[in-house]
Model the fold of this input.
Amino acid sequence: MKIKAAVASEIHKKINLQSFEIEDPLADEVIVKLEYAAINHRDIYITQGLYANIQLPCILGSDGSGKIIKKGTNVSQFNIGDEVITQPGIDWGNDEKFQSKNFQIIGMPSNGTFAEAIKINAEQIFPKPLHLNAEQAAALPLAGLTAYRALVTRGKVKQNDKVLVTGAGGGVALFVIQFALALGCEVWVTSGKQDKIDKCIALGAKGGVNYKEENWHKTLLKNVGEFDVIVDAACGKDFGKLTDICKPGGTICVYGGTAGKIGDIQPGKIFWKQINICGSTMGTPKEFEEMLDLVNTQKIVPITEKVFNLENINEAIDYIENANQFGKVLLKIG
Done:
């Protein structure tokens, strides 16, 4: 079948809509007619040449929601017409602690969700949460899985923990906030904009500080105290401040590095306070199921910012790069 797809052909070039041929599904595959897809910073980094092992041309996009329109002979767990979402990770491997060398994410090198349809192994799709519409569901997979692993698996968060989420406003950070609140934690945030802090408070966070203020960490220490779990995507020169406000025996989990290399840190603050510093990325199929169970049980609704039509994908990418959005930016397919 022929479909329309947004194809990244070269780095530093605009993404172009092209006609694309999808063959019939193999025995363990399905074809999903996509309704919405979500843009992640991963997609933008690929177009900028800032991602590892880039293989182009490729249809980008790791998150999608839609309906099954064809299925292979071995697929019995789904029916034609079922509403599903994509699970973005492929070949995590047998060790849940670390992804295998074969691990990859849908949307490069394999073709992704910025298209009218995707042919995908049935193991890579899950039923759409019933309380979400197609737009909300498409916002969930990659960012939700990344947030869940960072907070729950690696951060080992517990009920009544005091949690700090840095850089509130991005897709993953917002899911960390929502998941932590659903698990009964006290949540605080940092952001470079007061309106984002206010929006996080409206979601249920206790409060926050502006990280552009030089002594923001001292403000938190004075008014809030130390934190059991800190989830950070920035690193950079201010990372040492996180060790100041982390409780003895607490955890700092890092899932990104938007502020660059980690600055000066006093080693004594780490070993004397017995601080656990760990890294995290994406997650396992088991964690995806656990994340979906939390979303379904607690009726969590992803925060979405804006929807663009597929043909306006380059405009959507520019919006993400320039607008400092609060929530996920989506593509409406068709």
Q: What stands out?
A: Residues 141-154 form the longest helix (14 residues). The longest strand covers residues 29-38.
